[in-house]
Amino acid sequence: MAQPVVTIDNVTKTFDGEYAVENFSLAIEDGEFITLLGPSGCGKTTILRILGGFEDCDLGTVMIDGRTVTGVPPESRAVNTVFQSYALFPHMNVFDNVAFGLRIAGKSEAETERTVHEALKLVRLENMGSRRPKELSGGQQQRVAIARAIVNKPRVLLLDEPLSALDYRLRKQMQKELKELQQTLGITFVLVTHDQEEAFTMSDRVVVMNDGRIEQVGSPREIYEEPANLYVARFVGEINVLDGTITGHRGQSYMADVEGASVLVKARREFTPGDRVHVLLRPEDFRVEVMKDLEESPDLADKFAKALLTGSVDRTYYRGATYDVDITLDDGKHILVTEFFDEDSETLYFHAGDRVAVGWFEGWEVVLPYEG
Ligand SMILES: Nc1ncnc2c1ncn2[C@@H]1O[C@H](COP(=O)(O)OP(=O)(O)O)[C@@H](O)[C@H]1O
Ligand SMILES: [Mg+2]
């Protein structure tokens, strides 16, 4: 394994006695796109500012490119930062904004011109060099900020919510462009966002943060499909949390009593009979049938997933490509199920008041220890 390009080791930072970041450790691989994801105030910007050299940590060490950077000023680090507020020089044109760092570093005018053109081309602004920032749209200004940050080829680019000021469509487009840019350049990107979708679209790995600490690090798919705890499960997308108790073993599976039904579940951890657990299922993981149809059609009943709970439909919500079904299970638990439309039918399959059977395929659930 190659040496990580950034190693953050046990970093702690307090402001006025309050922890902003606590015991934070993370190794970032060369060339990866990694995202710090968490709600406002969880310490994302603080970590980025410590990496960028704008903030010292109280405890712990940071290594960039194999060397400890304690006390090393921002301009002497192999990292650049793109801020949410583009922070362009308003009185300079686009070209000069991007050229600024190169001129400070004493590059020749010929080299500066060539490198700036290259950078502007990468962010699709090759014809905008003579414009002032105020003559550009928000998206274009952010592109200038990105060009300025990549022009001197840093090892690591730090991006603090760079797209959050942009409207939805532009943000989606810029997400794809940024990802492409990262792949073209081969530079390590460290992105900060509170937007789960953004984190998932762009990242090789996501670091889910909560209150200055790391809750889980993994690929978007691992985070979504194998959340380490309830916090992560709830932060990324919708989740149904069923209550259960382990009742025994059967082969690789556990028998469990889940919302009053006896089911088989697969778990990645060790449990013993009597342990209380949360059984997590995404809305799209459930299989639901109207009871009447199951009773009338043995074929359907055979194909149906084995774990069976019963309940009633409260409401349906149109969502475009899918629709949501609110169901109350017979023990009073509410669940949310996502269904696809039947292309051949004018009406929805489910209606308020329908009695339904709810199941899922063994192994689709995530079983976590009870958190109280
Ligand atoms: N310069 C500062 N002075 C005092 N408190 C700060 C400062 N910077 C950040 N904090 C506090 O540290 C915590 C983490 O902030 P921050 O890293 O900005 O979170 P995020 O970027 O995830 O929203 C927050 O409680 C914030 O109020
Ligand atoms: Mg922030």
UniProtKB/TrEMBL annotation:
Residues 6-236 form the ABC transporter domain. This is Spermidine/putrescine import ATP-binding protein PotA. InterPro entries: AAA+_ATPase, ABC_SmlMolc_Importer, ABC_transporter-like_ATP-bd, ABC_transporter-like_CS, Mo/tungstate-bd_C_term_dom, P-loop_NTPase, PotA-like, PotA_ATP-bd. The keyword Nucleotide-binding applies. Its EC number is 7.6.2.11. GO terms for molecular function: ABC-type putrescine transporter activity; ATP binding; ATP hydrolysis activity. Pfam families: ABC_tran (PF00005), TOBE_2 (PF08402). It comes from the Bacteria. Part of the ABC transporter complex PotABCD involved in spermidine/putrescine import. Responsible for energy coupling to the transport system. The gene is potA. It catalyses: ATP + H2O + polyamine-[polyamine-binding protein]Side 1 = ADP + phosphate + polyamineSide 2 + [polyamine-binding protein]Side 1.
